[in-house]
Design a protein that fits this description.
about 100 residues, mainly alpha
Length: about 100
Amino acid sequence: MPTDNPRVAAYLPPPVFKQLKGFCKENRLSISEGVGRILGEYFGILPADTPSSIDWEARLTTVEGELLKLTDVGERIAAVENAIATLQQMISELQS
């Protein structure tokens, strides 16, 4: 893939390269993207979508809100299940 970015070549010790490959695989990055991400973080120059530049407080607030919705849904499902059980018991009593 062509790019206007400058080319950098380096010889890494095997353990460092192994860690780099693991980092790239875990983050679904090419080796080039991984090196760029690591160096960008090291130098304090991060792209907008990197984990270190995300507003985690805002994300946490959003996740908490979604969790409350799920809790409410869970309570509503439990109420429906109780109503069904009551109806089944009433039907059973009527049949006997």
